Amino acid sequence: MTSIAPRTITSIVSTRFVSLSPSSLSLKPLSEKYKLFGHSKGLGSTSAQPIKAVMEVNRNLYPQIEPYSSGFLKVSDIHTIYWEQSGKPDGHPVVFLHGGPGAGTSPGNRKFFDPTFYRIILFDQRGAGKSTPHACLEQNTTWDLVEDIEKLRKHLEIPEWQVFGGSWGSTLALAYSQSHPDKVTGLILRGIFMLRKKELDWFYQGGASAIYPDAWEMFRDFIPEDERDDFIVAYHKRLTSPDISVQVAAAKIWTKWEMMTAQLVQNKDNILRGEDDKFSLAFARIENHYFLNKGFLSTDSYLLENVDKIRHIKAVIVQGRYDVCCPMMSAWDLHKAWPEAELKIIQDAGHSANEVGTSAELVAANEKFKHLVLNGVA
Question: What confidence category does residue 249 fall into, taking pLDDT thresholds of 50, 70 and 90?
């Protein structure tokens, strides 16, 4: 990838739906428009100059589409990962990194991207979704996943790609881009999670429990009082029990705690995912495995300490103000360390990518990058 000077992208966006394709971009007068600016002095600089003309941009999710190709890639002697491609086969490649870890992808993940412009790649990380073996913890670390992303990129013969990740997906996106900055054309991050001790303590030792005491009681009471000094360790004992029924019981409660706190207004369908044995087992076992091992990162602030490696990459951070799972302190810390990245705070959203304001900003961020490519800036 050709290195470019650090850029910040600021925007004023229209709420009007406009269908755009690479072959025809119509510019129409609106009372509110979407503007792209580039500058090299970070947020707050007064030297920003317009890159191109004012453009309308879509902020609505795109219609559901189906993959045009899919397959399985063997990435180790144990693991095989599922991958799929949708959208435009010769379009601008973007890889979607799902959360958890262990959550897997879903068809709705394709809807953040313009299918007439983007070549959309989704894959299930080790042990998650359609990847096999299911819920497997062996040979399953952050750095294994980073190299899986590279193996998939090479398998699909993609020179470089845009990276999109939320929650744990933001963790993995940062780790991957810091390891392979020359392969990343842009980053869109949501619900920042950097696996620091204070983030894990907030959600699993107190903090979030003050906001959701009703949900917390179920999570807390599953563990005997004499083991409650470290819930991650206590749940790990049960999630790796030789008794599968113990694993499933612990997995459902672990998963339901997160599902009950993931949105500003609780979503019953989301909470019901915690009742699914197969989903919960992968989600809880893999999450807990990573959290017990602090994300397999060498220092507590590893991802912040290595921001210089990606400072040149254009990036947008989308963060719900009331995110209980990954509180805004992490997005703010990343923004302070990396002011060149644009931070969009959604004032009426929690953690989920599917909340209205958050999904709109994620679509808009992809549209920004699309227009930069079309205008020869990226």
Answer: very high
| Active site (annotated) includes residue 236 | no
Spot the catalytic one: 114, 124, 148, 323: 323
Q: How many CB atoms lie within 10 A of CB 220?
A: 16
Q: Find the catalytic residue in 351, 352, 359, 371.
A: 351
Instruction: State whether residue 5 is helix, strand or coil.
Output: coil
pTM of structure = 0.86
Residue 166 has pLDDT above 80, yes or no: yes
Contact 204, 224 (CB under 8 A): no
For the question of residue 323 being annotated catalytic, the response is yes
DSSP 55: B
**How far is residue 90's CA from residue 348's CA, in Å, rounded to a whole number?**
37
Residue pair 372/36 in contact (Cβ under 8 Å)? The answer is: yes
Main-chain phi, psi angles of 78, to 5 degrees: -110, -45
Interval 317-334: pLDDT, tens: 999 999 999 999 999 999
Place of tokens 């980073």: 146
Please confirm, yes or no, whether 351 is among the known catalytic residues.
yes
Structure-token pair, residue 303: 């991802």
